[in-house]
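Inverse folding, one chain.
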């Protein structure tokens, strides 16, 4: 058996199913670019049958990131590869056709189709007999195969399925042409011992098992996703389905960085290879957190703010003697602290462009002009500009692409005297400006009230997070927020076949944290408004503007 473990990233599909993780197409594309730099083997770019927007998003990624013409990036990043672009499809003709329509633009397309196999799903969700499920798998895997050579099949809720029945279903999937068999622990129910034994048993007993790649897909409901995934590869799986920061619905999916760094840090134990450029991990983590608005917990393994921090005196003393006393990985290996002084106040447009290319951003002339203006502005306020600052600026620019409302100016008065007051000027979708002043309990509240008076889109602020990009009093501040429309927005959860309430995240960065807060809120409002426009039942809703 080969020792190469394929990294299948599903941040843009299963990850995007996390509450509030809704991403714009520009953000999805930027994450896909970063995944390619990271060197993932397969990007699951979405669920094309979910909506025309989802189909378009997957197609865009297939066209760009899934093709070798995706040029300059490969030069700057030898690790960048042309990944397989996969789309998810339920086991029905319409989903499979839509999936093919989206992924066929990639050099290496994959259709990933699934059908539940646990009795509980058969009885309550599918209302199908075991025999009917077997037949549907045969028909739909063959149907997918009629479009695409590379077909993955997943028996959903395999972790709670009868292993004997799974053998039957998986044998049929192989006969029908599946090239990858993925075993999901959909509800994060299994333990490492059980899950490892399940994978071993399936590989040993499914007729034709040697013709396919075996894959594992674990959820973290009991905090065991990484352990289960590692048990899977130890028992013969050669593909792991993971997400950046472990985002995903409920407690999330297996996190890419944990699985990769476990194999990387313990080569003698696992004896497995992977194609990940580990120095790109921290950057991918920051990008996904910024765009989704889902903060990374400080004590998160590998990518948490404290993962490499050593505060207790005794530890620091040990570290000074030898890093290995308390560190099993070097922060640089995962790209933490890799930020360096890149440019200064006197650096020109050309130097900035060169640094952006090195970082993997391919900005057109207009985008570069804007970035340069912001860079100069930042350089006036902040002496030391690092890669992390440049990333934050670009994230902020991307978050403000194709939006309805944008910040045109603001002024805030606050302190211990008088009432916090904000005057905010926004540009509306027609380019008209609107200025409103409001008072609030604090400066952010005043700004948000002024924005609300202009945008007039009632919502609840569910979360507000603020943190600094780098150290120092002059650091850029990053804000992420999450909101929910008062008029609830729903999204079809195609896996569960039911509607779900949506929440929307927004991101903003600025040396002025109140400005960053305004940008984050406007970004979230834009996502909410776009979703409202997209929903047929609110297609005629007028977005009334305050004069
Ligand atoms: O968790 C799950 O079962 C899935 C499948 C669709 C692979 O996400
Ligand atoms: Zn899943």
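Residues assigned per position:
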């Amino acid at each position: 058996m080969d020792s190469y473990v394929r990294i299948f990233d599903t941040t843009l599909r299963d990850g995007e199913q996390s509450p509030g993780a809704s991403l714009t197409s520009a953000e999805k594309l930027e994450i896909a670019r970063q995944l390619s730099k990271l060197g993932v083997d397969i990007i699951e770019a979405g669920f094309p049958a979910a909506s025309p927007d989802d189909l378009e998003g997957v197609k865009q990624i297939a066209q760009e990131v899934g093709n070798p013409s995706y040029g300059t990036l490969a030069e700057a990043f030898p690790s960048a590869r042309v990944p397989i672009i996969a789309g998810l499809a339920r086991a029905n003709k319409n989903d499979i056709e839509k999936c093919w329509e989206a992924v066929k633009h990639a050099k290496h397309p994959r259709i990933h189709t699934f059908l539940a196999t646990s009795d509980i799903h058969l009885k309550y969700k599918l209302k199908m007999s075991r025999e009917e499920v077997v037949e549907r798998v045969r028909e739909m895997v063959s149907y997918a195969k009629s479009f695409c050579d590379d077909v993955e099949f997943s028996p959903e809720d395999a972790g709670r399925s009868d292993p004997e029945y799974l053998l039957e279903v998986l044998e049929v999937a192989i006969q029908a042409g599946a090239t990858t068999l993925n075993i999901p622990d959909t509800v994060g129910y299994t333990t490492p011992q059980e899950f490892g034994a399940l994978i071993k048993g399936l590989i040993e007993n499914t007729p034709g098992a040697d013709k396919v790649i075996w894959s594992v897909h674990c959820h973290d409901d009991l905090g065991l996703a990484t352990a289960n995934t590692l048990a899977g590869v130890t028992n013969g799986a050669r593909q792991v389905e993971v997400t950046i920061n472990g985002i995903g619905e409920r407690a999330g999916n297996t996190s890419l960085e944990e699985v990769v760094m476990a194999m990387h840090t313990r080569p003698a134990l696992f004896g497995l290879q992977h194609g990940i450029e580990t120095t790109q991990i921290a950057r991918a983590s920051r990008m996904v957190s910024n765009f989704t608005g889902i903060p990374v917990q400080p004590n998160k393994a590998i990518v948490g703010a404290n993962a490499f921090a050593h505060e207790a005196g005794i530890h620091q003393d040990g570290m000074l003697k030898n890093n290995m006393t308390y560190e099993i990985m070097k922060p640089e290996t995962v790209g933490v602290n890799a930020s360096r002084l890149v440019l200064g106040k006197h650096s020109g447009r050309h130097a900035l462009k060169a640094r952006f290319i090195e970082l993997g951003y391919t900005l057109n002339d207009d985008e570069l002009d804007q970035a340069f203006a912001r860079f100069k502005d930042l350089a006036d306020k902040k002496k030391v500009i690092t890669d992390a600052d440049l990333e934050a600026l670009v994230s902020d620019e991307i978050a403000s692409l194709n939006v309805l409302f944008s910040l045109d100016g603001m002024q805030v008065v606050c302190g211990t005297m008088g009432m916090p007051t904000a005057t905010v000027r926004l540009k509306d979708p027609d380019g008209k400006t609107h200025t409103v002043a409001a008072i609030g309990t604090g400066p952010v509240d005043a700004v948000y009230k002024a924005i609300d008076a202009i945008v007039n889109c009632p919502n609840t602020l569910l979360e507000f997070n603020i943190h600094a990009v780098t150290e120092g009093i002059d650091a850029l501040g990053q804000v992420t927020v999450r909101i929910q429309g008062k008029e609830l927005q729903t999204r079809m959860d195609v896996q569960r076949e039911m509607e779900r309430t949506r929440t929307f995240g927004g991101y903003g960065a600025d040396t002025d944290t109140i400005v960053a807060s305004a940008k984050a809120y406007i970004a979230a409002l834009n996502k909410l408004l776009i979703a409202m426009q997209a929903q047929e039942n609110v297609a005629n809703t007028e977005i009334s503007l305050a004069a």
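The chain has a mean pLDDT of 90. The longest helix spans residues 513-534.
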